[in-house]
Amino acid sequence: MLPEMRWLIESARHRAMTAANLAMVTLYWNIGRVITRDLQQNAKRGGYGERLLERLAAELAREYGSGYSISNLWDMRRFYVRLIPNSTASGCRIVEPGDSTATGCGIRTGKPSEKGGSHATNAV
To answer: Are 120 and 97 contacting, i.e. CB atoms less than 8 angstroms apart?
Structure first.
């Protein structure tokens, strides 16, 4: 009985850690997506990116802690750029809503799906 309970506890812990890790990867990818989109829309404004990230880092760090420094925000942007939609890096492919032929790695595009307004997600 004790070995089975240990197995149940360890299995639940592992699933919880996996879910938390996936949530953080998804968060960082989406933050990178939002930053990249804004930088592309304002590409003609000199120095815009540096000022934007300074402002975002200050606000986010004040509200959520030091994990949102300027360098971390740049890293999140780099992560998004390296794993952009339809990329095959690391065996993952970010899948757009309605792409029924694709496999993915579980990263949400952040765009509402056609079904009920939720976000599109694909599992491994």
So the answer is: yes
How many angstroms separate the CA atoms of 51 and 78, rounded?
Answer: 17
CB 79 within 8 A of CB 96: no
CA distance 60 to 57: 5
71 and 22, same domain (yes or no): yes
List, in sequence order, every residue forming a beta bridge with 85; answer none if it has no partner.
94
Residues pairing with 119 in the sheet: 112
Q: Which of 23, 55, 9 is nearest to 121 (CA)?
A: 23
pLDDT digits (tens, 9 = 90+) for 18-66: 999 999 999 999 999 999 999 888 878 777 888 889 999 999 999 999 8
Query: Which residue type occupies 77?
Result: R
Number of domain units in the chain: 2
Model-wide pTM > 0.70? no
Contacts of 111 (CB under 8 A, 6+ apart): 96, 97, 119, 120
Instruction: Identify whether residues 59 and 101 lie together within a single domain.
Output: no
